[in-house]
């Protein structure tokens, strides 16, 4: 298998965080991680577009040539293939709640962070159409949602049922990407900050 990722990009990082949290030995499961250089638009070259015509990262190519081209779909594939240490939950209700929280972290924090970076960072200049005035709006949108997660984390260490789940990995990836997007969690949200620091100590090297 081949997993195509890109340095610092949050969606492929979600998959890498997931593999680490599952404690999977990449060599043992036959997984090769391949870096795709976004700065040179390697993801827009013909060889990569044959894998994923949308040019998006990540993509997982299975041994038979089949391709899965979505971060959460890839995570679900690994969850079902290697069910030990489940991160999507076990009961129907647990899975639904974890999906809810992961989707909220994605839509309300991660996507605004990504928009802020795309429209406000010089990395994307000349690569995409930028609207610089949109970047601060996106940061404010993400910041406005910090309070929701702050409230949840005021009484527990993780987003659901007191244990690490894929929802936590999504939120951590979003908060950590905020360093590039121009929005860092700070003492205004002490529980969220402590949560970020705790996960960063565990996953920051990934």
Describe what this molecule looks like in 3D.
With 206 residues, this protein is α+β, with helices and mostly antiparallel strands. The chain has 7 helices and 4 strands, in the order E-H-E-H-E-E-H-H-H-H-H. It has helices at 10-21, 46-51, 71-81, 92-120, 134-153, 166-181, 190-203; strands at residues 2-5, 32-35, 59-61, 67-68. The protein has a 4-stranded mixed sheet with strand order 2-1-3-4. Helix 1 (10-21) packs antiparallel against helix 6 and helix 5 (134-153) crosses helix 7. The longest helix is centred in the middle third of the chain and has 29 residues, at 92-120. The two termini are 20 Å apart.
Can you summarize this structure?
The chain is of the alpha+beta class.
Mean pLDDT metric: 95
Tell me the quaternary state: single chain
Poorly predicted ranges: none
Our measurement of the CA-to-CA distance between the termini, rounded to an integer number of angstroms, reads: 20 Å
**Helix fraction?**
40-55%
Beta percentage is 5-15%
Number of helices: 7
Class based on secondary structure composition and strand pairing: alpha+beta
Global Rg: 17 Å
Give me the secondary-structure topology.
Layout: E1 2-5, H1 10-21, E2 32-35, H2 46-51, E3 59-61, E4 67-68, H3 71-81, H4 92-120, H5 134-153, H6 166-181, H7 190-203
Parallel strand pairs: 1-2
Antiparallel strand pairs: 1-3, 3-4
Helix pairs in contact: 1-3, 1-6, 4-5, 4-6, 5-7
Keywords:
206 residues, alpha+beta, four-stranded mixed beta sheet, 7 helices, 4 strands, globular
């Amino acid at each position: 298998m081949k997993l195509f990722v890109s340095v610092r990009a949050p969606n492929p990082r979600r998959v890498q965080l997931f593999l680490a949290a599952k404690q999977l030995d990449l060599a043992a499961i036959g997984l090769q991680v391949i870096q795709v250089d976004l700065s040179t638009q390697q993801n827009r070259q013909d060889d990569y577009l044959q894998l994923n015509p949308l040019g998006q990262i990540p993509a997982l190519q299975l041994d038979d040539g089949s391709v899965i081209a979505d971060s959460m779909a890839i995570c679900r594939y690994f969850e079902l293939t290697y069910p030990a240490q489940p991160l999507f939950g076990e009961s129907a209700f647990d899975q639904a709640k974890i999906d809810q929280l992961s989707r909220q972290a994605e839509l309300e924090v991660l996507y605004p962070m990504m928009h802020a970076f795309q429209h406000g960072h010089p990395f994307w200049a000349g690569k995409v159409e930028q609207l610089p005035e949109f970047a601060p709006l996106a940061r404010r949108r993400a910041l406005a949602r910090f309070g929701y997660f702050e409230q949840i984390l005021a009484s527990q260490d993780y987003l659901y049922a007191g244990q690490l789940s894929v929802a936590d990995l999504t939120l951590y990836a979003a908060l950590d990407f905020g360093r590039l997007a121009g929005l860092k969690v700070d003492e205004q949200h002490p529980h969220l900050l402590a949560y970020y620091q705790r996960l960063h100590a565990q996953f920051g090297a990934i």
